[in-house]
Amino acid sequence: MNTQEQISRLPFTDAILIKKAKKKWTIPVIMALSLLLITVFVLSLNLGRYGIPLHQIVSVFADKIFGLPISYPKTLDAVLFNIRIPRILTAILVGWALAASGAAYQGLFKNPMVSPDILGASAGSGFGAAIAILLSFSTVEIQASAFLFGLLAVFLSYSLSRTIGKNSDMVLILVLTGMVVETLFSSLTSVTKYVADPDSKLPEITFWLMGSLSKILGMTDVIKLLIPVVIGTVPLLLFRWQLNVLSFGEEEAKALGIDTRKVRLIVILSSTLLTASAISVSGMVGWIGLVVPHIARMIVGPDYRKLMPVSMLIGGIFLLMTDDVARTALAIEIPLGILTALIGAPFFLILLLKGKKGWI
In the chain, what are the domain boundaries? Predict the structure, then answer.
């Protein structure tokens, strides 16, 4: 099979879209997205119930960096460094992680309809958080429980697929076992909600499942999220060219010398770590891992060497802007999961309608 024939078999696109993906646009796109991320970051510092003028923000950072005399209220320092900046950084990291894992899974399973919860990570994390809330655990313990159960769900999916599909299509078996595990943990979450106290525990579980960053207080929470996000991101960036090869198909990848089992395991472990860590602090935030990779693919094409970093940047920008709306649009905070669904579902429908033009 020659190169042209291989390109024609790539999912998510066709030969025309490949030719239109110009390498010279990659660096300018990344620079533009980075500048946009910085701009949204600065604007987000000013948004909230406690409005902070730009000149005061500059004064605070100047004092921190150069030790200038304090010319702003001390409450401003607490709002910025204990609440607003940690929440902004967390939103960027969560969007970054979910978009990266979504892009990786779509390449691994050769299916543009795949999202980060395909192997049950979201359902497992939801059950872990629900059971921890039911048992009156602390915020840190709730996050740890959600993280561990998210990992457990994917471990079950992968272990079952290895047991069942020894001589079968591993990708298909993984999808099927992931559906089973996701259904199992979703049912367990429903049972937990059913037995929860309707006056206290049930509303708390329900709010957590809808997604929010309101529990983020201080840079300690950011560091706890940053560590697994970095650990999960590095392998995906290092192995992103192998994802290109896997897009050709299992047999073609093996013929090109790729250890498909090793690459598949690394991608699953890294993506699971990203998904579980993100959901453990943000709750059930959907659509980012499904929609954002499509946006990135429309901009830079299907090459994962470009698609992966661009998806990460767009994911961080998207969730940060969504969180800004969530905490400022109404008098009460809107759950993130509601907003991402309201934005993501219509947009994805547009992508489907435009699919004939090679958008997906």
Answer: 86-357
